Amino acid sequence: MIPAALFIAFSQHSATPVAGFLPGGKVSIRYVSFSSDAKQLSAGTVNGELITWDIASKRVVRVVITGREVRGDYEPASSNRIYTLHADGSIGLRDKVTGQLLRNADFTPNGA
Predict the structure, then answer these.
(1) Which of 9, 17, 21, 87 could form a disulfide with 69 if both were Cys (CB 3.0 to 4.6 A apart)?
(2) How many CB atoms lie within 10 A of CB 42?
């Protein structure tokens, strides 16, 4: 038996909550989001993973290892890129298929 962490998320597109498991034991999820078409669910972890599931099949479609706590993501529908937002204020631009980091930027509120 593989230990797993349970998550439950709610979408504005459905009255039914989505539930699933993260394999691998104790995982702290800091962020969840639905794709714009509500077909996928992404979860960001304190371990630096962005895990995306297909809701209908309940299968993992992508795991992006960022190495930094993930607090948000943005995936433009017409793009093959993912923007990952991190707890340390950095923003990563990644290839949607490979997860490879293409660019990284640090955000500072005062612009410095």
Answers:
(1) 87
(2) 23
